[in-house]
Design brief:
This protein is of the alpha+beta class. The protein is built from five helices and four strands, in the order H-H-H-E-H-E-E-H-E.
């Protein structure tokens, strides 16, 4: 990856719907070499997918909850099954296996506290093997950013 690749990625992070012509112009390339670079970055897995950012509040999902979970077991089988169950819960929008006191950190999007209680009762607490959980409601998002594209 060179400086031009990083410029292309920065343009895509700003506007994933930008046309090839707009991206090419912004980074100082003609369309063909720009397209070739983008395709290479897709094939190399640098560009995973093209998506849209949705406004959770506008969709009626006014609360974000960070949930820390500890499991009873840490076997490969348990971790795999736990991950499979999490993948079926649409309210869980991010899930990380982490180091430290807890095993997992989840980011959950819900309508409100009642909706979160429902999620706990009907889905999360029904997952076998959860030993402990701790929930924190996000009061305000202070920073939400794209990935940094610094040169190495």
């Amino acid at each position: 990856m060179d400086k031009t690749d990083r410029k292309i990625l920065a343009e895509l992070q700003k506007n994933g719907r930008a046309s090839l012509q707009e991206i090419s112009q912004a980074v100082g390339l003609s369309s063909t070499p720009c397209w070739t670079r983008m395709k290479r970055m897709e094939e190399d897995g640098v560009i995973e997918r093209y998506t849209v950012n949705l406004n959770a509040h506008a969709l009626g999902l006014g609360d974000t909850v960070l949930v820390q979970l500890t499991l009873d077991s840490h076997s490969d089988n348990t971790l795999e099954k736990f991950g499979q169950v999490l993948a079926t819960i649409p309210e869980v929008i991010e899930a990380y296996l982490v180091s430290g006191e807890y095993d997992y950190l989840l980011r959950v999007a819900v309508k409100d506290t009642k909706d979160y209680e429902r999620l706990l009762r009907e889905k999360l607490y029904k997952i076998k093997g959860i030993r402990h959980s701790k929930s924190s409601f996000v009061l305000r998002t202070l920073k939400k950013a794209d990935l940094p594209l610094q040169e190495n």
